[in-house]
Amino acid sequence: MKTKISILSLVAFVLMLSGCGNAEMDKRLANLERRVNQLENGNVARGTVSTPSTTASSQAVESNLTSNASFQWESTVHNFGTIAQGEVVNYTFKFTNNGTEDLRIQSTSASCGCTVPNHTKEPVPPGGTGEIVVRFDSKGKSGQQSPVITVVANTNPKQVRLSLRGFVQTNAVPQP
């Protein structure tokens, strides 16, 4: 069982490193993550096995499914325009919790290594605000860029995707 989880985790990691904005790769990665979660929660690969006892982890999963935390984004897409190759762009995605429970961000990840998200770590109370600061490094990039940031939280839906858009010009001199 642990061998299967290790192999699936390794495959998911390799797929994540090899793709940068590939929608098909994102679907495969999401499917692998789902399979790993099934294995970790005692489910078999062909289907879900119900257990009669309710554990703390299954209660946490149930509470996430019925969570009343909710994102209200100022914007889910940011166009950074045209930049010189090697330039670094930072952008802050801001949100408000317009739900009735604390909003907890569990993780943030980017579609490629050129983009690094950093999220609010503390729970955001109803009516409170939070942010996800994203750093895009255009070193080695050229042409149209569209990295995607995936946010996993105790909301419904559980995942939200944020996007950066822009163009990296190769013959320009980066701004200091």
TrEMBL record:
<keyword id="KW-0732">Signal</keyword>
<protein>
    <recommendedName>
        <fullName>DUF1573 domain-containing protein</fullName>
    </recommendedName>
</protein>
<dbReference type="InterPro" id="IPR011467">
    <property type="entry name" value="DUF1573"/>
</dbReference>
<dbReference type="InterPro" id="IPR013783">
    <property type="entry name" value="Ig-like_fold"/>
</dbReference>
<dbReference type="Pfam" id="PF07610">
    <property type="entry name" value="DUF1573"/>
</dbReference>
<feature type="signal peptide">
    <location>
        <begin position="1"/>
        <end position="23"/>
    </location>
</feature>
